[in-house]
Amino acid sequence: MMWYQLTIKGCASNLADAFSEHLQELGAVSVTLLDEADSPVLEPAPGATPLWPDVIIQALFDDEDIQQAALHALKTSHPHCEVIPTELEDQDWERAWMQDFHPMQFGERVWVCPSWTPPPQPDAINLMLDPGLAFGSGTHPTTALCLEYLDKHPPLGKSVIDFGCGSGILAIAALKLGASHVCAVDIDEQALQATKANAKNNGIVADTLSIGFPDSLTEKVDYLLANILAKPLVELKSQFQKLLNDQGVLILSGLLTEQIDWLLDEYTEGFTLVEKKVKDEWGLLVFQKTKTITRKQ
Fold first, then answer.
1. Which of 86, 126, 161, 287 could join 250 via S-S bond, C-beta 3.0 to 4.6 A?
2. Biggest CA-to-CA distance, the chain
3. Are residues 7 and 70 in the same domain?
4. What is the Cα–Cα distance from 72 to 104, expressed in whole angstroms?
5. How many CA atoms are closer than 13 Å to the CA of 146, on its beta-carbon side?
6. Is 10 exposed, middle or buried (0-12, 13-18, 19+ CB in 10 A)?
7. Quick check: 234 and 263 in contact, CB under 8 A?
8. Contact yes or no for 214/185 (Cβ under 8 A)
9. Based on the structure, what is the number of domains in the chain?
10. What is the pLDDT of residues 121-168, one digit of tens each?
11. Pairing of strands 282-289, 271-279
12. Does the residue 238 lie in any domain?
């Protein structure tokens, strides 16, 4: 059986829902939204279904005449969009999708592996993690930078906060690298559910991992990881200070290289920069909390 696809480029995200409904009315059996400009969604609003600023829409049809009629209708109603028709051979779509994801190595010991693939190095630090809706499967440079840092500086016996945990990938990595306890927090309930599921799939002992919203944090820790947007990183500085022990380590990522100097300026008081790394136009900054000395009057 042949399938017939239309790929629509040049669609703004605010039109994606209307486009999808229109395609279904035109006879599409499925509609898929893809990121057109490689713009990651790092910190969605609570309860929101995030979309990228520009999307590619792929509509699948089981009849060529219906596809051609839809193509004509879209060219008439949306002349500003590029609409590309293609034919697809029938295949096992689920298996084809799975082939796009393979084990990835970070540093010397850490691997992120989808559940359907045996770990290439069984004795390594293997995180079994399937791609899903919650952000964080290791494919984005900011996540990779954090995993590489943890691999190089394992938090042996340390307490850790994963602030903006997404899928829980950094929390799970910290525990597998020897952390004594991790608090994984996020503003999105979906992320918390994903973290719980991934922790269970990785055999994480329940009493070593706490999962909740940021307002649940009360105890000071040795390490704090925050892989979120640059603006919240600046806004949360005072909270990060309160959550870290004296000499505690703060690992910040999620910022573009052009935002690094701005963030460094904001962190001149209370923190000392100990490491800076850049990968594919994204940055990671590592600070040590400096002890505040109160002088007697």
1. 287
2. 86
3. yes
4. 43
5. 32
6. middle
7. yes
8. yes
9. 2
10. 999 999 998 765 444 555 688 899 999 999 999 999 999 999 999 889
11. antiparallel
12. yes
Q: Are residues 139 and 285 in the same domain?
A: yes
Full-model pTM: 0.70
User: What integer pLDDT is reported at residue 138 of this predicted model?
Assistant: 58
Higher per-residue confidence, 164 vs 190 = 164
- Could you tell me if 74 and 194 lie in one domain? no
CA distance 50 to 71: 27
Is the Cβ–Cβ distance between 124 and 109 less than 8 Å? yes
- 285/144 same-domain check: yes
The strand pairing partners of 161, in sequence order, are 183, 224
Of 292 and 271, which is predicted with more confidence?
271
Domain that holds residue 8: 1-13+54-90
Instruction: Provide the CB-side half-sphere exposure for 286 (13 A, CA).
Output: 17
Q: Which two tokens stand for residue 269?
A: 């008081």
Per this entry, what is the length of the chain?
A: 297
Beta bridge partners of 87: 4
Helix/strand/coil (H/E/C) assignment for every residue in the chain: CEEEEEEEEEEEHHHHHHHHHHHHHCCCCEEEEEECCCCCCCCCCCCCCCCCCEEEEEEEECCHHHHHHHHHHHHHHCCCCEEEEEEEECCCHHHHHHCCCCCEEECCCEEEECCCCCCCCCCCEEEECCCCCCCCCCCCHHHHHHHHHHHHCCCCCCEEEEECCCCCHHHHHHHHCCCCEEEEECCCHHHHHHHHHHHHHCCCCHHHEEEECHHHCCCCEEEEEEECCHHHHHHCHHHHHHHEEEEEEEEEEEEEHHHHHHHHHHCCCCEEEEEEEEECCEEEEEEEECCCCCCCC
Per-residue pLDDT of 97-108, as tens digits, reads 556 678 889 999
Q: What is the mean pLDDT of the chain?
A: 85
CB-based burial of residue 279 (10 Å sphere; 0-12 exposed, 13-18 middle, 19+ buried)? middle
